[in-house]
From TrEMBL:
Gene3D superfamilies: Winged helix-like DNA-binding domain superfamily/Winged helix DNA-binding domain
Superkingdom, taxonomy of origin: Bacteria
Native source species: Streptomyces graminearus
Residues covered by the HTH luxR-type domain: 257-322
Protein name according to UniProt: Helix-turn-helix transcriptional regulator
Protein backbone atom coordinates (compact mmCIF):
# COMPACT_ATOMS: atom_id res chain seq x y z
CA UNK A 1 0.00 0.00 0.00
CA UNK A 2 2.81 2.40 0.91
CA UNK A 3 4.57 1.62 -2.36
CA UNK A 4 1.45 2.47 -4.39
CA UNK A 5 1.06 5.75 -2.50
CA UNK A 6 4.67 6.72 -3.20
CA UNK A 7 4.20 6.09 -6.92
CA UNK A 8 1.43 8.69 -6.93
CA UNK A 9 3.91 11.36 -5.75
CA UNK A 10 6.95 11.03 -8.07
CA UNK A 11 8.51 14.39 -7.33
CA UNK A 12 11.12 16.14 -5.23
CA UNK A 13 10.93 18.92 -2.66
CA UNK A 14 11.36 21.45 -5.48
CA UNK A 15 8.00 20.57 -7.06
CA UNK A 16 5.53 19.37 -4.47
CA UNK A 17 2.15 18.00 -5.50
CA UNK A 18 -0.83 20.23 -4.67
CA UNK A 19 -1.90 18.10 -1.71
CA UNK A 20 1.62 18.05 -0.28
CA UNK A 21 1.93 21.79 -0.79
CA UNK A 22 -1.25 22.42 1.22
CA UNK A 23 -0.33 20.11 4.12
CA UNK A 24 3.27 21.40 4.39
CA UNK A 25 2.10 25.04 4.29
CA UNK A 26 -0.45 24.27 7.03
CA UNK A 27 2.26 22.59 9.13
CA UNK A 28 4.60 25.58 8.81
CA UNK A 29 1.83 28.03 9.65
CA UNK A 30 0.56 26.09 12.69
CA UNK A 31 3.83 24.54 13.87
CA UNK A 32 2.57 20.95 13.43
CA UNK A 33 -0.24 18.87 11.89
CA UNK A 34 -1.99 15.66 12.96
CA UNK A 35 -0.37 12.56 11.45
CA UNK A 36 -3.72 11.56 9.94
CA UNK A 37 -3.70 14.68 7.73
CA UNK A 38 -0.45 13.53 6.09
CA UNK A 39 -1.58 9.99 5.26
CA UNK A 40 -2.60 11.03 1.75
CA UNK A 41 0.78 12.70 1.11
CA UNK A 42 3.52 10.21 2.10
CA UNK A 43 5.89 12.29 -0.03
CA UNK A 44 6.25 14.82 2.82
CA UNK A 45 7.69 12.17 5.14
CA UNK A 46 9.77 10.55 2.39
CA UNK A 47 11.31 13.94 1.52
CA UNK A 48 11.87 14.75 5.22
CA UNK A 49 9.63 17.81 5.02
CA UNK A 50 7.63 16.47 7.94
CA UNK A 51 8.83 14.30 10.82
CA UNK A 52 7.25 12.91 14.00
CA UNK A 53 6.87 15.21 16.99
CA UNK A 54 9.00 13.59 19.71
CA UNK A 55 6.54 14.84 22.34
CA UNK A 56 3.48 13.33 20.65
CA UNK A 57 3.89 10.74 17.89
CA UNK A 58 0.34 11.40 16.64
CA UNK A 59 1.55 14.77 15.36
CA UNK A 60 4.08 15.77 12.67
CA UNK A 61 6.28 18.87 12.75
CA UNK A 62 7.73 20.57 9.64
CA UNK A 63 11.35 20.97 8.63
CA UNK A 64 12.03 24.71 8.46
CA UNK A 65 11.74 26.32 5.00
CA UNK A 66 15.26 27.73 5.43
CA UNK A 67 16.67 24.22 5.85
CA UNK A 68 14.69 22.96 2.86
CA UNK A 69 16.05 25.82 0.70
CA UNK A 70 19.61 25.06 1.79
CA UNK A 71 19.12 21.38 0.94
CA UNK A 72 17.70 22.20 -2.52
CA UNK A 73 20.50 24.64 -3.36
CA UNK A 74 23.09 22.10 -2.26
CA UNK A 75 21.50 19.50 -4.53
CA UNK A 76 21.71 21.85 -7.52
CA UNK A 77 25.33 22.67 -6.66
CA UNK A 78 26.24 18.97 -6.45
CA UNK A 79 24.64 18.25 -9.83
CA UNK A 80 26.56 21.08 -11.49
CA UNK A 81 29.84 19.99 -9.87
CA UNK A 82 29.33 16.40 -11.00
CA UNK A 83 28.61 17.54 -14.57
CA UNK A 84 31.79 19.63 -14.54
CA UNK A 85 33.87 16.68 -13.32
CA UNK A 86 32.43 14.43 -16.03
CA UNK A 87 33.08 16.95 -18.80
CA UNK A 88 36.64 17.49 -17.55
CA UNK A 89 37.27 13.75 -17.64
CA UNK A 90 35.74 13.51 -21.12
CA UNK A 91 37.93 16.33 -22.48
CA UNK A 92 41.05 14.64 -21.04
CA UNK A 93 39.97 11.37 -22.66
CA UNK A 94 39.38 13.12 -26.01
CA UNK A 95 42.89 14.56 -25.93
CA UNK A 96 44.41 11.18 -25.02
CA UNK A 97 42.58 9.34 -27.79
CA UNK A 98 43.40 12.11 -30.26
CA UNK A 99 47.07 11.64 -29.39
CA UNK A 100 46.83 7.90 -29.99
CA UNK A 101 45.08 8.51 -33.29
CA UNK A 102 47.83 10.55 -34.97
CA UNK A 103 48.75 7.57 -37.14
CA UNK A 104 45.26 6.10 -37.31
CA UNK A 105 42.75 8.93 -37.65
CA UNK A 106 39.30 8.65 -36.03
CA UNK A 107 36.77 9.06 -38.80
CA UNK A 108 33.26 10.44 -38.58
CA UNK A 109 30.45 8.19 -39.90
CA UNK A 110 29.85 10.51 -42.87
CA UNK A 111 33.53 10.77 -43.74
CA UNK A 112 36.19 13.22 -42.57
CA UNK A 113 37.79 13.52 -39.14
CA UNK A 114 35.62 12.99 -36.06
CA UNK A 115 38.13 14.82 -33.82
CA UNK A 116 40.13 17.62 -35.42
CA UNK A 117 42.75 19.71 -33.60
CA UNK A 118 42.59 23.40 -34.56
CA UNK A 119 45.95 25.03 -33.81
CA UNK A 120 45.87 28.83 -33.80
CA UNK A 121 43.16 31.47 -33.55
CA UNK A 122 42.89 31.89 -37.34
CA UNK A 123 42.11 28.19 -37.85
CA UNK A 124 39.62 28.25 -34.99
CA UNK A 125 37.87 31.32 -36.44
CA UNK A 126 37.74 29.75 -39.93
CA UNK A 127 36.23 26.51 -38.59
CA UNK A 128 33.67 28.44 -36.54
CA UNK A 129 32.70 30.52 -39.56
CA UNK A 130 32.27 27.35 -41.62
CA UNK A 131 30.05 25.77 -38.94
CA UNK A 132 28.03 29.00 -38.69
CA UNK A 133 27.36 29.04 -42.43
CA UNK A 134 26.19 25.40 -42.36
CA UNK A 135 23.99 25.85 -39.25
CA UNK A 136 20.24 25.90 -39.90
CA UNK A 137 18.46 25.23 -36.60
CA UNK A 138 20.15 25.72 -33.24
CA UNK A 139 23.31 26.88 -31.47
CA UNK A 140 24.06 25.99 -27.84
CA UNK A 141 26.91 27.73 -26.01
CA UNK A 142 28.53 27.74 -22.58
CA UNK A 143 30.45 30.93 -21.81
CA UNK A 144 32.51 30.83 -18.58
CA UNK A 145 34.63 33.58 -17.11
CA UNK A 146 32.23 36.03 -15.50
CA UNK A 147 31.54 39.41 -17.13
CA UNK A 148 32.04 39.16 -20.91
CA UNK A 149 34.49 41.69 -22.29
CA UNK A 150 33.40 43.86 -25.20
CA UNK A 151 36.16 42.33 -27.35
CA UNK A 152 34.82 38.81 -26.75
CA UNK A 153 31.28 39.83 -27.64
CA UNK A 154 32.42 41.71 -30.76
CA UNK A 155 34.56 38.77 -31.91
CA UNK A 156 31.56 36.53 -32.53
CA UNK A 157 28.96 39.20 -33.28
CA UNK A 158 29.11 38.72 -37.06
CA UNK A 159 28.36 35.01 -36.63
CA UNK A 160 25.49 35.70 -34.22
CA UNK A 161 23.92 38.22 -36.60
CA UNK A 162 24.24 35.81 -39.51
CA UNK A 163 22.50 33.11 -37.49
CA UNK A 164 19.74 35.50 -36.44
CA UNK A 165 19.18 36.45 -40.06
CA UNK A 166 18.49 32.78 -40.90
CA UNK A 167 16.14 32.27 -37.95
CA UNK A 168 18.55 30.03 -36.01
CA UNK A 169 17.69 29.80 -32.31
CA UNK A 170 20.45 30.26 -29.72
CA UNK A 171 20.69 29.30 -26.05
CA UNK A 172 23.59 30.61 -23.96
CA UNK A 173 24.75 29.64 -20.46
CA UNK A 174 26.77 32.09 -18.35
CA UNK A 175 27.86 32.41 -14.73
CA UNK A 176 25.70 34.55 -12.44
CA UNK A 177 28.46 37.19 -12.46
CA UNK A 178 27.82 37.82 -16.17
CA UNK A 179 24.49 39.42 -15.21
CA UNK A 180 26.42 42.54 -14.17
CA UNK A 181 28.02 43.13 -17.59
CA UNK A 182 26.40 45.90 -19.61
CA UNK A 183 28.00 44.56 -22.77
CA UNK A 184 26.12 41.28 -22.46
CA UNK A 185 22.84 43.06 -21.81
CA UNK A 186 23.41 45.21 -24.93
CA UNK A 187 24.21 42.10 -26.97
CA UNK A 188 21.05 40.31 -25.85
CA UNK A 189 18.95 43.39 -26.57
CA UNK A 190 20.43 43.53 -30.08
CA UNK A 191 19.71 39.83 -30.70
CA UNK A 192 16.13 40.04 -29.42
CA UNK A 193 14.17 36.83 -28.86
CA UNK A 194 16.61 34.89 -31.06
CA UNK A 195 18.80 34.30 -27.99
CA UNK A 196 17.73 32.88 -24.63
CA UNK A 197 20.23 33.19 -21.76
CA UNK A 198 20.45 31.53 -18.35
CA UNK A 199 23.03 31.61 -15.55
CA UNK A 200 24.56 29.32 -12.91
CA UNK A 201 27.02 29.73 -10.04
CA UNK A 202 29.53 27.74 -12.08
CA UNK A 203 29.62 26.48 -15.65
CA UNK A 204 31.90 24.11 -17.54
CA UNK A 205 34.64 25.37 -19.85
CA UNK A 206 33.68 26.98 -23.15
CA UNK A 207 31.47 24.87 -25.40
CA UNK A 208 29.77 25.72 -28.71
CA UNK A 209 27.39 23.25 -30.42
CA UNK A 210 25.95 23.75 -33.92
CA UNK A 211 22.82 21.81 -34.92
CA UNK A 212 23.83 19.01 -32.52
CA UNK A 213 26.26 17.75 -35.17
CA UNK A 214 29.53 19.62 -34.49
CA UNK A 215 31.00 20.88 -31.21
CA UNK A 216 33.98 23.08 -30.36
CA UNK A 217 35.83 22.89 -27.03
CA UNK A 218 39.17 24.38 -25.86
CA UNK A 219 42.26 22.18 -26.18
CA UNK A 220 44.58 24.25 -23.98
CA UNK A 221 44.36 26.74 -21.13
CA UNK A 222 44.82 29.94 -23.17
CA UNK A 223 42.33 28.79 -25.85
CA UNK A 224 44.78 29.12 -28.73
CA UNK A 225 43.94 25.53 -29.64
CA UNK A 226 40.53 23.89 -29.94
CA UNK A 227 39.00 20.52 -30.72
CA UNK A 228 36.35 20.24 -33.42
CA UNK A 229 34.19 17.21 -32.62
CA UNK A 230 31.91 15.57 -35.17
CA UNK A 231 31.55 12.05 -33.79
CA UNK A 232 27.81 11.58 -32.99
CA UNK A 233 28.44 9.89 -29.63
CA UNK A 234 30.78 12.64 -28.41
CA UNK A 235 28.49 15.42 -29.61
CA UNK A 236 25.41 13.78 -28.09
CA UNK A 237 27.25 13.46 -24.76
CA UNK A 238 28.02 17.20 -24.75
CA UNK A 239 24.42 18.02 -25.72
CA UNK A 240 23.22 15.99 -22.73
CA UNK A 241 25.59 17.88 -20.41
CA UNK A 242 24.33 21.20 -21.77
CA UNK A 243 20.67 20.26 -21.38
CA UNK A 244 21.18 19.20 -17.76
CA UNK A 245 22.96 22.44 -16.93
CA UNK A 246 20.27 24.39 -18.77
CA UNK A 247 17.56 22.75 -16.68
CA UNK A 248 19.39 23.77 -13.47
CA UNK A 249 20.14 27.33 -14.63
CA UNK A 250 18.13 30.47 -13.85
CA UNK A 251 16.78 32.63 -16.70
CA UNK A 252 18.64 35.91 -17.04
CA UNK A 253 15.31 37.74 -16.72
CA UNK A 254 14.59 36.11 -13.33
CA UNK A 255 16.17 37.21 -10.01
CA UNK A 256 18.61 34.95 -8.18
CA UNK A 257 17.03 33.01 -5.30
CA UNK A 258 17.29 34.41 -1.80
CA UNK A 259 19.59 32.46 0.51
CA UNK A 260 17.13 32.62 3.40
CA UNK A 261 19.96 33.86 5.66
CA UNK A 262 19.95 37.56 6.49
CA UNK A 263 23.06 39.44 5.38
CA UNK A 264 24.40 36.67 3.10
CA UNK A 265 24.02 36.98 -0.67
CA UNK A 266 23.63 34.17 -3.18
CA UNK A 267 27.25 34.62 -4.31
CA UNK A 268 28.54 34.54 -0.74
CA UNK A 269 26.63 31.32 -0.15
CA UNK A 270 28.39 29.80 -3.17
CA UNK A 271 31.76 31.01 -1.89
CA UNK A 272 31.02 29.55 1.56
CA UNK A 273 30.24 26.14 0.04
CA UNK A 274 33.53 26.15 -1.91
CA UNK A 275 35.48 27.29 1.17
CA UNK A 276 33.94 24.37 3.08
CA UNK A 277 35.30 22.03 0.40
CA UNK A 278 38.79 23.37 1.07
CA UNK A 279 39.37 25.40 -2.10
CA UNK A 280 41.80 28.31 -2.16
CA UNK A 281 40.70 31.87 -2.95
CA UNK A 282 42.14 31.82 -6.49
CA UNK A 283 40.36 28.57 -7.36
CA UNK A 284 37.04 29.86 -6.00
CA UNK A 285 37.42 33.10 -7.96
CA UNK A 286 38.12 31.23 -11.21
CA UNK A 287 35.19 28.86 -10.76
CA UNK A 288 32.72 31.68 -10.05
CA UNK A 289 34.09 34.02 -12.72
CA UNK A 290 35.18 36.80 -10.35
CA UNK A 291 38.53 38.37 -9.47
CA UNK A 292 40.53 37.13 -6.48
CA UNK A 293 40.18 40.61 -4.94
CA UNK A 294 36.37 40.47 -5.23
CA UNK A 295 36.36 36.94 -3.85
CA UNK A 296 38.32 38.02 -0.78
CA UNK A 297 36.01 40.98 -0.23
CA UNK A 298 33.06 38.56 -0.13
CA UNK A 299 34.94 36.29 2.27
CA UNK A 300 35.59 39.28 4.55
CA UNK A 301 31.86 40.08 4.54
CA UNK A 302 31.06 36.45 5.32
CA UNK A 303 33.44 36.57 8.27
CA UNK A 304 31.86 39.76 9.56
CA UNK A 305 28.28 38.49 9.15
CA UNK A 306 29.03 35.16 10.82
CA UNK A 307 31.20 36.69 13.54
CA UNK A 308 34.38 34.80 12.59
CA UNK A 309 37.77 36.20 13.63
CA UNK A 310 39.88 33.78 11.55
CA UNK A 311 39.64 31.49 8.52
CA UNK A 312 39.51 28.46 10.81
CA UNK A 313 36.67 29.97 12.80
CA UNK A 314 34.94 30.95 9.56
CA UNK A 315 34.92 27.29 8.51
CA UNK A 316 33.21 26.39 11.77
CA UNK A 317 30.66 29.20 11.39
CA UNK A 318 29.91 28.14 7.80
CA UNK A 319 29.16 24.60 8.97
CA UNK A 320 27.02 25.82 11.88
CA UNK A 321 24.98 28.03 9.54
CA UNK A 322 24.46 25.17 7.09
CA UNK A 323 26.27 27.06 4.31
CA UNK A 324 28.46 24.02 3.66
CA UNK A 325 25.41 22.19 2.32
CA UNK A 326 24.96 19.97 5.36
CA UNK A 327 21.41 21.26 5.88
CA UNK A 328 22.08 22.03 9.56
CA UNK A 329 21.37 25.74 9.14
CA UNK A 330 20.45 27.77 12.20
CA UNK A 331 17.69 30.39 12.15
CA UNK A 332 18.76 33.58 10.37
CA UNK A 333 18.20 35.73 13.45
CA UNK A 334 20.93 33.82 15.32
CA UNK A 335 23.53 33.56 12.55
CA UNK A 336 25.47 36.67 13.50
CA UNK A 337 25.70 35.72 17.17
CA UNK A 338 27.07 32.19 16.75
Amino acid sequence: MAGRRAEQHPHGADRLCEAGDRVYERAVRRGRVPRVEAEAVPCLLELALLHPDPDDMDWLVPTSPQEVMTRLLRGVYDEVSESQRRVGSAVAAFEWYAGLGRSQALAAPGGGSAVRVLDGLSRIQAAMDEATQACTTEVLTVQPGGIRREAELTEGLHRALALRGRGVRMRDLYTHVARHGQGLLNYLELMGDTVEARTLDEVIDRLILFDRTVAFIPANADRTMALELRHPALVEYLVTVFERLWRLAIPLTAPLPDTGIEGISHREQSIAALLAEGHQDAVIAERLGISVRTCRAHIARLSETLGAASRTQLGVRIAQAGLDGSGRGLPAARDASL
